Structures are given as C-alpha cells and as structure tokens.
Amino acid sequence: MKRLGLFPNFQFSARLTISAIVLAAICFWCATWQWDKYGKKVALIDTYQTDSVEPPIVLDPEKVSNEELANHLNRRVRLSGTYDFDRQIIVTNRKHAVGPGHWLLTPLKLDGTDRYVIVSRGFIPFRDRHPEDWKKYSFSAHELLDAVVKPSSQKMFMGPSNPDPTAETPFPQLWFFPEISKYAKLLPYPCLLYTSP
Predict the structure, then answer these.
(1) Adjacent-strand bridge partners of 77
(2) What is the Cα–Cα distance from 187 to 184, expressed in whole angstroms?
(3) 194, 100 contact by CB (below 8 A)
(4) Cα 155 to chain centroid, rounded
(5) What is the pLDDT of residue 135?
(6) Which residue in 7, 34, 67, 137 is a FRET match for 190, CA 20 to 30 A apart?
(7) Which of 125, 116, 65, 123 is nearest to 87 (CA)?
(8) Is the pLDDT of residue 10 over 70?
C-alpha cells in the first residue's frame, strides 16, 4: 500500500518558484519605494509649514552657488534679476483649476552677476502655446521675487523625452517636463539650479 503525503499531487516547478521569488522581490521593492516616498513627502510638508511662518532666505546674488541652492532645496528664497524673454520655454500638459495648460519657464539674470537661474513664472492656458502668445506675460523685465528652490526633473520611466536641438529648431521651446539640466545647456550663459515661485 502506497502512503499518501499531505500534498500527494505536489510537483516542484523551478519556473514557478523563480517567478514567485521575483514577484516577491518586486513587491518588496515597491513597498520600500512607497515608504521612502512617504517619508520625503512628510519632510516636504514640514518644510513648507516652516517656510509659511518664516521670512524667505535672502540670497546674495554675487555669492549664490549651486551648493547653496542645494542646501535650500524646497525652501523659499528671495532674489532679484532681469528676465531673458527671448529664451523662454513652456512645459506642456500641466493641470490647473481652469483647465489644461503649460508652465512658462524663463531665465533670470541675477543682479550684479553674469549668472542665471530658471524661473517657472506660473501656469498659462493651453491656447497660449506659441511664443508670440507669451508676450502678454512679459510684464516687467526686472523683478524682485520669492521663489521655492527645486531641482532639475528627470525623465520618468516610459515617459516622453524632451526635444533635442535641430537645424530647423535650434532652440526647442515646447518641453514635456522641466529638465533644467538640459535646458541650461542650450543657453549661451552659465545657469544655476532651478527655482519655482
């Protein structure tokens, strides 16, 4: 008489076992990523709450550096300079309460220096997608502003790529995400990190 075990029909499958291990590893990585994202979100909210009751950090335009801006990431800073309206771009597919549209990004030359930062000057409607439409937002070339320091964005997995310069469009003005590190390479002057009001 043959003795039946607890699982008499069990057969080991290497393929199924490996698939289960890989799936478990992916689930563990996703959980870790989500927990890390949660921690960063909490820290960001704390920073915004602190900034809401404290005055902005006043930057010395002659001494400000990439390192200093990196130390003030997600903090409000105060700076002044002159906009270069001839080298603006838009970041398309942005959402707002009024509907779809774009972010209008403009280089700002810091007072008393030859260095620039890129400023997101805010949301504009979808219909204003052509450079000639942006003139209505060129209120004053010189501005004193409070801004939140942000890093350059990176391409998302499976997301669209930003345009590269071509003979027909040597300075592409429609972008899919604020890849400031790439944007800065197209400018004829030195550019620091990204700030957003």
Answers:
(1) 57, 147
(2) 5
(3) no
(4) 9
(5) 93
(6) 137
(7) 116
(8) no
CA atoms within 13 A on the CB side of 169: 9
At 127, the amino acid letter reads R
| Residue that is written with structure tokens 């504009």 in the block | 124
Q: Which 3 state secondary structure label does DSSP give 14?
A: helix
Residue tagged 């075990």 (tokens): 5
Q: How many CB atoms lie within 10 A of CB 110?
A: 19
Burial of residue 14, with CB atoms counted within 10 A of its CB: 0-12 exposed, 13-18 middle, 19 or more buried:
exposed
Question: What is the DSSP-derived secondary structure letter of residue 72?
Answer: T
Per-residue pLDDT for 1 more than 50? no
| Encoded tokens for 53 | 């009751």
Q: What is the pLDDT of residues 90-139, one digit of tens each?
A: 999 998 888 999 999 999 999 999 999 999 999 999 999 999 999 999 98
Q: What are phi and psi of 4, to 5 degrees?
A: -90, 135
Residue type, position 168, single letter:
E
pLDDT at 197 over 90: no
Question: What pLDDT score was predicted for residue 86?
Answer: 95
Residue 82 φ then ψ, to 5°: -120, 130
Judged on CB neighbours under 10 Å (0-12, 13-18, 19+), 121 is buried
104 in Cβ contact with 122 (< 8 Å): yes
Burial of 193 (0-12, 13-18, 19+ CB in 10 A): buried
All residues at 6 or more sequence positions from 135 whose CB lies less than 8 Å from its CB, including other chains: 85
